[in-house]
Recover the amino acids of this structure.
């Protein structure tokens, strides 16, 4: 379209998600994929050839000081966050897009939030499942009032905490009108995944008290129930809401279903998480937010921060026991503290389908 600004983008990290982002920016006429960076020169050369990008470097700082991108995007493991946020701020980007989870600790998440607020930089964190048509159908049903007054939102996933917990909480908050949490209480078991690059207890579950009085129930990992309707293990996630007159829920890899006031019996529909369908509208909403400050991205960083805070409060509850009041301040890094309190006992799995990942 004529007259619309084209935003220059640099993407750092050329793994699975970096490539998803790079392709989506490349395919959207509102963006110019101006440069890419990753640490491994061979991987960088392969990605550059595939994407048709001329400007590459293993050094993101140098690349960004040359290109001065409008959007700085990085898709790296969760240990690599704060330095890259600082790179994005220093190069003058108007928006930083990065992957969940926001950080490995509340301390780092607070630093990130404060730094981007101080710099006036917009941020987007990739909880992009919500672009799935089945996720959106559930949102529509809940928002229409067809399940009555929502009293409970819930989410569970068999994948482990730092992979999936913030996804679950993000969609639970969305289904609950974006409500903030007042307190949480959680418990955890199993040390097997503490050594992973998404370090996590094998199993975490707990309750959330939302400010609107709605109860959140969430669990993630080895003890979370199977979703037998879904074959693909990472998509065995179920997120939904119960109301006074029905329920509506999404299965990440298996459509949606509901019971509502107006319709007889269970209503259901299809849909499956699919990066190829989710990424185009996700990046389009980045262009719209850059065009117009009032069109805030659904995956904005302030909202992701709220979900991350709930997730870390759950770990603090395991460490400190009892209820944890929000908002959280600085504290002992949660995963370090957890290493001191999690019992050595192997985790108990909910189903044979979890034994390959968790033993038990
Ligand atoms: N939103 C989603 O649906 C979704 C799905 C999968 C993964 N993720 C998240 O995406 C992130 C990346 O996951 P992935 O599957 O793409 O991983 P990956 O291992 O495929 O790629 C990671 C990339 O980051 C690079 N990297 C690692 N450390 C770095 C550092 N310190 N500085 C610069 N580059 C560095 C690696 O070289 C690699 O290119 C993780 O946070 C993960 O949780 C999100």
């Amino acid at each position: 379209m004529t007259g619309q600004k084209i935003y220059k983008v640099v993407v750092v990290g050329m793994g699975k998600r970096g490539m998803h982002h790079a392709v989506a920016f490349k395919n959207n006429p509102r963006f110019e994929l101006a440069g890419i960076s990753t640490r491994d020169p061979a991987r960088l050369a392969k990605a550059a050839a595939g994407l048709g990008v001329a400007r590459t470097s293993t050094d993101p700082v140098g690349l960004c000081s040359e290109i001065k991108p409008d959007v700085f995007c990085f898709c790296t493991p969760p240990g690599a966050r704060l330095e890259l946020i600082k790179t994005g701020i220093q190069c003058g980007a108007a928006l930083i897009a990065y992957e969940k989870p926001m950080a490995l600790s509340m301390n780092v998440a607070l630093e990130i939030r404060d730094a981007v607020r101080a710099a006036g930089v917009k941020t987007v964190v990739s909880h992009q499942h919500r672009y799935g048509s089945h996720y959106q159908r559930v949102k529509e049903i809940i928002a229409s009032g067809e399940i009555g007054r929502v009293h409970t939102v819930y989410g569970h996933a068999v994948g482990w905490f730092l992979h999936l917990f913030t996804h679950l909480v993000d969609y639970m908050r969305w289904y609950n009108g974006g409500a903030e949490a007042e307190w949480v209480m959680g418990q955890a078991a199993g040390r097997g995944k503490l050594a992973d690059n998404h370090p996590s207890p094998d199993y975490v579950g707990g309750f959330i008290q939302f400010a609107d009085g709605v109860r959140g129930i969430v669990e993630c990992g080895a003890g979370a129930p199977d979703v037998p309707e879904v074959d693909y293990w990472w998509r065995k996630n179920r997120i939904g809401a119960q109301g006074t007159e029905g329920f509506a829920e999404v299965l990440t890899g298996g459509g949606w279903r509901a019971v509502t006031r107006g319709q007889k019996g269970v209503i259901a529909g299809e849909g499956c998480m699919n990066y190829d369908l989710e990424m185009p509208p996700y990046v389009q909403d980045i262009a719209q937010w850059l065009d117009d400050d009032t069109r805030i991205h659904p995956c904005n960083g302030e909202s992701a921060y709220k979900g991350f805070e709930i997730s870390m409060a759950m770990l603090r509850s395991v460490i400190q026991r009892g209820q944890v009041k929000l908002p959280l301040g600085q504290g002992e890094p949660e995963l370090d503290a957890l290493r001191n309190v999690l019992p050595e006992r192997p985790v108990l799995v909910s189903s044979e389908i979890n034994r390959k990942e968790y033993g038990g």
About this structure: Residues 301-320 form the longest helix (20 residues). The chain has eleven helices and 15 strands. The radius of gyration is 20 Å.
